[in-house]
Amino acid sequence: MKGAPAGPCELRVRLGLLPLTFADEFDALSLYDARTRRGRWKTSFAHGPQRGAMAWDSRTLKGNHERQIYVDPAFPGSGFMPLGLNPFAVSQGILSIKAEPTTPKAKDQLWRFGYASGLLTSQPSFSQRYGYFELRAKLPRGKGLWPAFWLLPSRGGWPPELDVLEQTGGDVVLQTAHFAKGGGPAEVGHKTTVEGATTAFHTYGALWTAQRIIWFIDGEQTAAAPTPPDMHGTMYLLLNLAVGGSFAGDPDPTTPWPAHFEIDYVRAYGLAETPDSESPRHAGTLPSGGADRD
């Protein structure tokens, strides 16, 4: 790993002292059912129509000019019957989110989006203020691919946004906080080169307290910043594999299809009895966690 910033002594967190508040080891995938209000992961954003002629608005981020639409096996697109498109697969405790070009037939019912992919959000089932958030994942390689693990505010709106992990198809990982400043959006974060990000599993984490946000990769601190003034409410988790757009750039003929964002686990920890986990009682080592897989 290259690019970790120089600075004050590295903060480490002993996870054994923090209460585990959320964990998905992906032995199976629990999708949220709006009819029964059961299940863990929702497959569309909280904003926009969830069904009908404008349902695409809750299944892509048009402001980013993304090329994919997020689907699930029950999603009917612009029609009435499920299209049966499944971007999710679970095997041996690994969740794979798949992105691939849409077929001509499916494209007609997917508002002409050129790619289908997957989004998972804990918005209906889990949110938290402050804590440590981590996933273990192997990232896709290829131009125009944009996997992410991030948090959004339960109250809705944007910013703020806390990015534990973003990547655009190579070995450079971005970890960022977005916030409001001077009437517009601002951001602070860091880029880190992670050798083997697309060929092996690595852990990516963010410690969010009332005072600071500290990012980690494989248990090592990569960056830190003061917690923005608008990042003090509860936030929920998101996992997705976007394709193209103004941030990642569009795919080209070298982009391999299908592309896979492979996730071993997602975990969240609270901050025990105090919102300030930088106190000495939490000092220690941040383990990478999980059995090795590559």
TrEMBL record:
GO molecular function annotation: hydrolase activity, hydrolyzing O-glycosyl compounds
UniProt key word Hydrolase: yes
Sequence segments annotated as region (Disordered): 272-294
Source organism, top-level taxon: Bacteria
Entry-linked SUPFAM superfamilies: Concanavalin A-like lectins/glucanases
Domain GH16 residues, every copy: 13-274
Keyword list, A-Z: Hydrolase
One BP annotation, GO: carbohydrate metabolic process
Family membership: Belongs to the glycosyl hydrolase 16 family.
Name of this chain's protein: Glycoside hydrolase family 16 protein
Species name: Phenylobacterium glaciei
